Amino acid sequence: MITRRLALYLSILFLILGLSGCASWFSDDRPEPQVHLVRVEVVQAKLMQQRFLLHFRVDNPDDSDLTVRGLEYRIHLGTILLTEGEHEHWFTVGPKRSAYFKVPIRTNLWPKVRELVKMLKKSDQPIPYRLEGEMETGLFIAHYVHLKRNGVIIPADFIPEQNR
User: Looking at residue 1, what is its pLDDT?
Assistant: First the structure.
């Protein structure tokens, strides 16, 4: 009876000790993929609704394929949240390669028009933007890559010369 109990305790102890190393099975020192917002294309601009196409590039620095499951994103212009959402689209990026994908979005900037006009008034002044989110990768086990990109845009760069 005592040997059975001892065997049970020892097997539970070995099980616990064996499972404590499982967390290290999934950690690796591989470089994280990079996501860049390459371009914002205006599809339609009406008073109450604007449609854009966000062009993203995913860089895979690893030696194996990268399966992308989807993207959750938030884009801020200055202090204004322009848009947020999710895009579920599976694709594979080859080793040491880049891939491009497009995300269609709809937004209503009408409630924020005053703030936008203030920012755009001085067309030569840079306006900060921020891209935040998570990209879900992995074929069987999900891995989340956190995104945070900051930059500036200069509105004058988007205005044709004759309209200035």
Answer: 58
Distance from C-alpha of 87 to C-alpha of 69, rounded to nearest angstrom:
9
Question: What one-character-per-residue DSSP string does 24-63 give?
Answer: HHH---PPPPEEEEEEEEEEEE-SS-EEEEEEEEEEE-SS
H-state helical runs in 21-146: 22-26, 113-121
Sign of CA dihedral 75, 132, 87, 32: positive
Please, what are the domains in the chain? Answer: 30-157 (2.60.40.10)
CA distance 113 to 120: 10
For residues 105 and 83, give the distance between their C-alpha atoms in angstroms, rounded to a whole number. 8
> Is the Cα dihedral 38, 39, 40, 44 positive or negative?
negative
**Token pair 């200069």 in the structure block, residue:** 154
Q: What is the pTM of this model?
A: 0.72
